[in-house]
Predict the 3D structure of the following.
Amino acid sequence: MTDLYPAPDASPIDPAVEAALQASREARTESLLEFARIPSISALPEHAADMVTAAEWVAGRLRRVGATDVEVAPTALHPIVYGRIHEAPGAPTVLVYCHYDVQPVDPIDLWETSPFDPFVRDGRFIGRGVADDKGQLVMHLAALEALRTAGKAPAVNLTFVFEGEEEYGSDSLYAWIEDNRERLAADVAVISDTGYFEGNLPAITVALRGIMYAQIDVVLSPVDLHSGMYGGTVDNPANALARIIAALKGADGRVRIPGFYDDVVPLTDAEREAMAALPFDEEAYRAEIPVPALVGEAGWTTLERRTSRPTLDVNGMWSGFQGEGAKTIIPAHAHAKISTRLVANQDPKRIFEGLKAFVAEVSPPGVVVTTRYIHGGEPSLTPTEHPATQAAARAIEAVYGAPPVYIREGGSIPVTSAFDHTLGLPVVLLGFTQPSCNAHAPNEWLLVENFEQGTRVIVRLWDELGALERA
Ligand code: BES
Ligand code: MN
Ligand code: MN
């Protein structure tokens, strides 16, 4: 690994920009801590005002680095922050995306300190959002600020879209993209919301899974019933829900919804070989979580299951009595949150229709069952050979002294397919966190080293892309 603070003339980036980064280290650290103190949880209505505060914070920072047309655009839910630095006539235009919203923080008692009182310890930022995705957003801002301090402009034209609903399905963004196509015209999109491969191995992500999130509601009657007086004469919604859920997936890990696998693009032999060649330590992966055993669809390796096979999971279920002791009732209703992770070319709406029809088919007559769509996002797959991806690879190699690995990720970034399909842009997924960073979990962290290196990769990327011929 390269020295974190090389002499400016040995740095992989412009010496004046390197010097600016070294001089601003404390300020940059404080900038992430300040941003991470804003509890911008997109899923919880009580944080609506914090969402605006976070959006305004981002907009203020964009103005500070000389962005024009900066706007906190209202949407049906949380605002989108827009801005541009177009100071490289004739050079390519890059659409830069990160998200400023974060996941809820429960279970709160497992945090070492308050999730929104972030701090740095032993070379790590710790706090909600420091990795996913505020740290990466701040890396982009820091790269720009250092360029400015050095009296420079990025070698490409940059258009920024920072959203506040990524962790909530990105619904508002889809509509906003449709309405703002012209202002979003670009040659390539760079999304910084992914990470490195296991072991802090720099990586470029080339595939993400999509998602289809739904809820199943099973209703028996308006109120709980006495289980002695009614047990044996009515169906039980919790039992019925358990049977429905059991029907969805076999013990072999295969989803049993008819047609579920129809649109899956199979992995080629070469892709399977490349994945098998990644330095993946299965036992370390298991032990880190830790779980008693790794389990999944038969016929596929752990990495293949995690990234390239679709799956279906119950995310939550509830019904009836949950207190201490006992209460003899037949619950009035039962519910489950169900999500599927999808791979190219599965379509979330089609998958939902399949789920809904299958649930209806296996539902018993003594209860009323409804299945509703909560949100969805398409999977994405980018070609590694695209010149923009190769430019990102060169930027990584310049900073780390070794080329990145190309990986597929199991998570979802719904906007990726909108950039690809709606705007017709090639997408580079370039992120700087570690897989074990506790994203969405207590004590989320980001290595200060990755923060520093990621910022330099971004600085270098604008140079690499600026040197490309316009597409
Ligand atoms: N940054 C993640 C996506 C991600 C996860 C990338 C793992 C690479 C590896 C993103 O913020 C995220 O959590 N997305 C949600 C999307 C959902 C709420 C629609 C996800 O994957 O659960
Ligand atoms: Mn994210
Ligand atoms: Mn996330």
The two ends are 34 Å apart (CA to CA). The longest strand covers residues 210-219. The CA atoms of residues 94 and 158 lie 5 Å apart. The chain is about 35% helix and 20% strand.
